Amino acid sequence: MNIKLSISIAATLLAFSAYSNAAELKLRIMETTDLHMNFLNYDYYQDKPVENFGVNRTIPLIKAARAEAVNSMLFDNGDLIQGNPLGDVIARIRGLKPGETHAAFKVMNQLGYDAANLGNHEFNFGLDFLRQSIATAKFPYVSANVFEGAADTPNAKHAFTPFLILNRSFKDTEGKTHALKIGVIGFTPPQIMQWDRSHLQGKVFTRDIVEMAKRYVPEMKSQGADLVIAIPHSGYERTPQGPMAENAVAGLADVPGIDAILFGHSHAEFPSQQFANHPKVNIAKGTINGVASVMPGRWGDHLGIIDLTLDNASGKWLIKDSQSMLRPIFDRTARKALVESDPLVEAAIKEEHEATLAYVRAKVAESSAPIYSYFAQVADDPSVQIVSNAQIAYVKKALVGTPHANLPILSAAAPFKAGGRQGASFYTDIPAGPIAIKNVADLYIFPNTLKAVLFTGAQVRDWIEMSAGQFNTIDPKGAPEQNLLNPAFPSFNFDTVDGVTYDIDVTQPPKFDTRGMPNTATAVVNPSRVKNLRFNGQPIDLSAKFVVATNNYRAYGGGNFPALGADKVILDAPEENREALVEYLRDGSKAAGGKVNPTADNNWRILGVPGITMTFTSASSAQKFLGNHKNIRLLKEAADGFATFALVP
User: Fold this and answer.
1) Helix (H, G, I), strand (E, B) or coil at 129
2) The model's pTM
3) SS3 content of the chain, % helix, strand, coil (to 5)
4) What integer is the mean pLDDT of 298-326?
5) Domains plus CATH for the chain?
6) Which of 33, 241, 434, 503 has its CB surrounded by the most CB atoms within 10 Å?
C-alpha cells in the first residue's frame, strides 16, 4: 500500500475516532453578588419585612435552577459581610468568638457554594476580622490583585489565594461522566487602598485587575484548566478605563482564555437594556466581546445564571454556545414577590437577627421634625443636614488645642439613600419623635470613619463643582421640560458643603469629568456651576484656609474629587461617622430640652431657569413633604412606586 495513502487513512480513522468519542456537556454557572448581609427579607432601617430583597428569597431560585440542570456550580462575588445593621452588630458589637461561624456562612455553608471572591466592602472592618470571618466558610476564597506588604515589590506574596483549579465531575448529554478542571480567579477594586486606607496602609497593596488577569489566566491554563471563570468585583464602563481601574470588566473581556465573567460591585443588572449602548455587548446572549457574562443586581434580588454548552470534539473542552440570564425574586411592575421565603435563613441566624433588632430599636434621642431624603439631590435636605451638624460638632471638639483650632470648620456630606436601582423604598423617612439606632444607621448606612482635611477656599469651590456634576446641563433655549439628574452619577458622590452658602447654575456644563479632571468635552472655557459662594455672608476668600469634615472614603480620594488625598488629612479619627452622629444626637437632645432640630438650613439651591421645567424622579411617598418645598411639584406617578417631580422657577 502507498505510504502516503496509509498515512491519510490513519489520519482519517484517528479523526473519526476522535469525533465518534466526542461528548457534549451542559454546565450551569450561578452567581450571587453584593449581598451586603441582606440574608433575610427584612429592612432593619424601617424595622419591617420587605419582599424585594433577601437571600431567603434567592434560595428558592438557586434550588430551582439546580434542579433544572444536570451540572451546576454556584459562586459569590463579595461585598458580603458589610452593608446593614446585621453586619455591623456582628463586626462591631458582638464580634466573633473563637470557633464561632459568621452568620453569613451559617447560611452559605448550607447552600453548596463552590468558591467566592472578595469585594471592596469585605475590608471595611479590617484584615483581622475579614480573615477571621472567611475562615468559617466551607468553600474557598480567591483574590488575585491584593498583595502583602507596605508597597509594591516584585516578589510580593499574595494576601489571599489568587486562583483555584477545582476538580469537578460532570455528566455529558449521554450520561457519561467526565473530569473537568475549572479555573476560578477573583479580583477586588484596587481603590480599597483609598477607601480603607486606615485598615490597609502598610499591610497590603493592590495591583491592576486586567494586568493580573493577563498574568494568571495563562498560568491557570498551563495547570490544566478546561474552563476559566473570572469573578471580578468590578463594574462595566462604556468608555475605556486606564490602569488600576475600579470598573475593569470591559478590559477583562478582552483577556484571552477567560470563558465566563461573573461581575458585580455597581449593583446593576446584566444582561439588561441598561447596557445596550455599551461596546461589544450582545444583550440577547448576555455576552461581552463574546464572553458569557452576568451581574445579578444586589441584596439577593436576582440570581445570575450562565448556561454553557461545551464539547470536546477538538480534543479539548470548548464552548459551543452560551446563554446568560437573570432570575428576579420580585416583579417591579406588578410590585409583587415571585418566590416565597426559604426557612433555612431564619433558622440559621435567628440569634443574630434578634440581637440586631434589639440593637437597632434602642432609643438615642428625640427629633422635633421629620428627617427624609426624598429631595436630597435637588434641595438642601434634613437627612444630610443632621449628618453635617454632627461632623462639625465632632471636628470642633477634636481640634481643640491643635494648630487648626481657630480655623473655620465646614462639612461635606452626601445623601446615601436616594432611590435609583435600589428602588422606591430606598429613601430615609424618619418621622418626628424618637430616634433609635436603626434611624442613625438609616441616615449613615456605611461604616465610614470620620476625617477632616485642610483646604483653601478655591479647593472648597472645586469640591462643590465636582459634586455639581450630578446635574445634566440644562439648555435655556431647549425643550420646555428637561431631566435634571444624571442617573449615572452616584448620590453618595453628591456632597453638599455646610458652613458656606452657594447657588448652582445648571445651564453651565460641569467643570470636571468623572475622573476629577477639567471637562474638555465642552466649548465653554473653564465652566463654573458654583455661583455666589459665600462664607459668613461675604464672597469666599479663595486663598483662606478651611477645615472640612468628611469621611475616609472621600478624604483619601474616593469619587476622584480634585485635591483630595492623604496629604490633605489633618484629623484621622478612628470613630465612625455614625458614632459621631449618635454622640451629636444625644448631646444635642440634652442641650435643646430633649429634642434636636434636623431641619435643613437651605444654605444652597439650584438656580431656576426661566421657561424651563426641570424634572427628576423620587418616591411617590415624597408627596407628603411637598409643603416644605414650594419650588417642587408633582408631575405624575408611576406604577413602580416612583413619581416624576418638577423643580420650577
Assistant:
1) helix
2) 0.78
3) 30, 30, 45
4) 97
5) 40-353 (3.60.21.10), 362-605 (3.90.780.10)
6) 33
